[in-house]
Amino acid sequence: MTHMFFFLTAALYGCATAVYLVCLVRTSPLLTRWASRLLTAGFIAHLLSTIHLASKLKYLPLTNMQESLSFFSLAIVGGFLFFERRYKVTTLGSFITPVALMMLAASSSLHGEVRQLHPILQSNWFWFHAMLAFISYACFTIAAGVAVMYLIQNYFLKTKQFGALFQKLPSLEIMDEISYRCLTVGFPLLTIAIISGSIWSEQAMGSYWIWDPKQTWSLIIWLIYAALLHGRLTIGWRGKRAAILAILGFVVVLFTFFAMKHSITW
Questions:
Q1: CA angle 118, 126, 198 (to 5 degrees)
Q2: Torsional sign, CA 112, 128, 179, 91
Q3: CB hemisphere CA count around 132 (13 angstroms)
Q4: Where are the beta strands (DSSP E) in 129-262?
Q5: Which domains does the chain have, with CATH numbers?
Q6: Global pTM value
Q7: Closest C-alpha to 65, from 127, 110, 120, 20
Q8: pLDDT digits 0-9 by tens, 26-59
């Protein structure tokens, strides 16, 4: 059953991504509704697949790269659907759904064997830490997608190129607000994830901080987004500078996620 839900998810995500990309060229209420419906159906199938796998494994599937990529994709889609409904930003799907689809495709290309759970992972603190970390990463992914859109729209305004794509992109104010909301949700979650991860580390290895590569790079991510949030709240960082830093933060998130896969988490 898990495989059936997984392949259904991939098909729905693929179709939704195609429709969202078409919306960049030709937008209509019908296309918009179908894009959202397909993605929502894919999210439900993905969620059911994750729940079914968790019930079979008897733990949350976050213990290897295959499972983590799938959960990352799920978190990204869930976060995007929330912002799409709240801000009516269908165009954002053209930048976010391809990322979620690629995460899911990468997950399907890996071999995830069912094995005995390592004793180091048999802690509620680990599950709490891992789940919050992925949700925060999903927020930063959406913020990066919005930042790319912001830079494109800002370029159109500066060069006075008011073409079809300019008309489809949200205003700079709306994009800036979405980016800020992602930051105000993602940063606290990342902070709690790091703290809970430290508690897990102390229980599993006798030390709150062992300077594991993933711990170190997670701290770097925290510092980048702390600087971005501090800049916005104290000196009014907005616009291009904030967008570039949001993209930089996301690049570091991806590096940490993929390059540090052999650390204590996996």
A1: 115
A2: positive
A3: 19
A4: none
A5: 1-116 (1.20.120), 118-266 (no CATH)
A6: 0.91
A7: 110
A8: 878 889 999 999 999 999 999 999 998 888 888 8
